[in-house]
Amino acid sequence: EDQVTQSPEALRLQEGESSSLNCSYTVSGLRGLFWYRQDPGKGPEFLFTLYSAGEEKEKERLKATLTKKESFLHITAPKPEDSATYLCAVQAADNTDKLIFGTGTRLQVFP
Amino acid sequence: DAMVIQNPRYQVTQFGKPVTLSCSQTLNHNVMYWYQQKSSQAPKLLFHYYDKDFNNEADTPDNFQSRRPNTSFCFLDIRSPGLGDAAMYLCATSRAILGRADTQYFGPGTRLTVL
């Protein structure tokens, strides 16, 4: 069964304290892996799409990487405005209309 | 800016009173999705349209219906809302490339309260 597991469930960081969020996946052929940021009471905001193992993408303080079994979202020197829930989702090669979501990592960055 | 718009942002209804949520998009994407998201949970796909083709998820209750009158608009109808239907409802769109849906872009959501 296709599955996505995110860890940790919650993460508290001091401003400037770099860390990584993990997304492990099991899917019958990966078409794409997606990272979203979701603020409370709002819809998910697209961050990155990764298509193949070894691929990396960066945006400001965020960097996403992909292996054959997992993806990492690295946060370098986070700021309080980076506080949000980060969702990972995968798209299977045999059913590309749908996304399989993880339950997210809730990140809090304190000044 | 191209975007996904949802109205209203907040909707309060009474138990059993039908309600309609709307979604519009200026991205000209041919695939549109409706998700239900409850607190601290992942979004749950209810159904999606691939152009005019409607695709219902097997576990979506019959109480939920959808209409897509044209490329830009999609509606979610809840015929008889129950207390368990209180949630955030998210609309998303994507374009299909060579028959495969690509990145999904989400609207801001509609928070539904059932009294």
* Oligomer type: heterodimer
Strand count, sense and barrel status of the largest sheet of chain A are: 6 strands, mixed
Order of helices and strands of chain B: EEEEEEEEEEEEE
Question: Beta-strand level of the residues of chain B, as a percent range?
Answer: over 45%
- Helix percentage of chain B: under 10%
Report the principal-axis shape of chain A: globular
Largest β sheet strand count, sense and barrel closure of chain B: 7 strands, mixed
Average pLDDT over all residues of chain B: 93
What is the top-level CATH class of chain A? Answer: Mainly Beta
Span of the ends, CA to CA of chain A: 41 Å
How far apart the termini of chain B lie comes to 36 Å
Describe the structure.
The complex is a heterodimer of chains A (111) and B (115). Chain A has 111 residues and is mainly beta. Chain A contains no helices and eleven strands. Chain A is globular and about 45 Å long. In chain A, 35% of the residues are buried. Chain B is mostly beta strands and 115 residues long. Chain B has a single domain (4-114), classed as Immunoglobulin-like (Sandwich), CATH 2.60.40.10. In chain B, the strands form three sheets. In chain B, strands 2, 4, 5, 6, 9, 12 and 13 form a seven-stranded mixed β-sheet that branches. Chain B has a four-stranded antiparallel β-sheet with strand order 1-3-8-7, with no helix packed on it. A two-stranded antiparallel sheet of chain B has the order 10-11. The radius of gyration of chain B is 14 Å and the shape is globular. Classes of the chains: A mainly beta (111), B mainly beta (115).
Q: Which descriptors apply to this entry?
A:
heterodimer, A: 111 residues, mainly beta, Immunoglobulin-like, six-stranded mixed beta sheet, five-stranded antiparallel beta sheet, B: 115 residues, seven-stranded mixed beta sheet, four-stranded antiparallel beta sheet
